[in-house]
Design goal:
four-stranded antiparallel β-sheet, 287 residues, 10 helices, alpha+beta, 11% strand, 2 domains, Alpha-Beta Plaits
């Protein structure tokens, strides 16, 4: 089977699982407790209390204008996945609607609903789709302004939560905001992978020795950057390397044991594109 076909199947599986999980979170945790999602889903949840239309149908109807607008501005492949995700989500919201709510405790619904919803949305995003028309708005506004997609979506959601608080009580608005932050964190974890990577930058005069040791002990290549000390005026090697969180302790221990002059910083990485690991190499000096 061709790689492109496998990737498409993988994408569809992510979107399918994610849409079903997200629908379960909305219908079994959030909606019964008047805890609102952001974006189109949140607007639909509010409107469903005043209109004789099922939440699943309403969600898809409200998304339609965004999809039509995106038709001329966003790639057809993304749009097709978005339509599939939104349609499946709407169908399963309707399927889960007759079920009894999992809990009527607001705090439990906020925390577990946020985690489950974040898992579902994260899987959909990982599959290259989206469940909400406001994400499309965020993408398009971000292209034309200095605002990021995340900032646009956040601003829209704050307005929705303020309206929910005014209509259904301030507690409902606050629980919705808390759920939003929980969901956002889980989405990041799911979309970028559960194993958080770390980047380490090492400033030293013994770059070759340290680079060889990193390769021999961890199977990682490093990138050399040339620098110069401001006070000393001497040339420095700046080594940049990406490792997993579990390897940081051993890497710091290795540097301490080598007794070399080195200054290092460690930073979080949210996403890695490309292959940064080399497990075998016949000549480590070629790094």
């Amino acid at each position: 089977m061709k790689k492109d076909t496998l990737e498409l199947i993988k994408s569809i599986l992510y979107i399918t699982a994610g849409a079903i999980i997200a629908a379960f979170a909305v219908e079994e945790f959030l909606a019964p407790n008047k805890i609102f999602d952001g974006g189109v889903v949140g607007v639909s949840m509010i409107l469903s209390h005043f209109l004789p239309v099922k939440l699943g149908i309403l969600t898809f109807i409200v998304n339609i204008p965004f999809l039509l607008y995106a038709l001329k501005h966003i790639g057809h492949a993304f749009l097709a996945k978005a339509v599939y995700a939104m349609l499946l989500f709407s169908i399963f919201v309707g399927i889960f609607e007759p079920f009894t709510a999992t809990t009527y405790d607001n705090l439990l619904a906020t925390v577990f609903g946020g985690v489950i919803l974040g898992t579902g949305v994260g899987l959909v995003l990982r599959g290259g789709g989206c469940l909400d028309g406001t994400e499309i708005v965020g993408i398009l506004v971000g292209r034309k302004t200095s605002l990021s997609t995340g900032n646009v979506i956040f601003a829209i959601n704050i307005v929705i939560y303020a309206i929910a608080g005014l209509i259904f009580g301030i507690d409902s608005g606050f629980y919705s905001i808390l759920m939003y932050f929980i969901t956002s964190k889980v989405i990041d974890m799911i979309e970028t992978g559960m194993e958080q990577a770390k980047s380490i930058m090492i400033v030293t005069e013994d770059g070759k020795q340290i680079a060889d040791a990193i390769y021999q002990n961890f199977g990682r290549t490093v990138t050399f950057i040339k620098g110069e000390g401001l006070v000393s005026g001497t040339e420095k090697d700046i080594l940049y390397c990406v490792v997993t969180r579990a390897e940081i302790y051993d890497l710091k221990k290795m540097l301490t044991g080598m007794r070399v002059e080195a200054f290092s910083t460690v930073s979080d990485i949210s996403e890695i594109i490309g292959n940064h690991v080399k497990t075998t190499h016949s000549d480590p000096s070629a790094l």
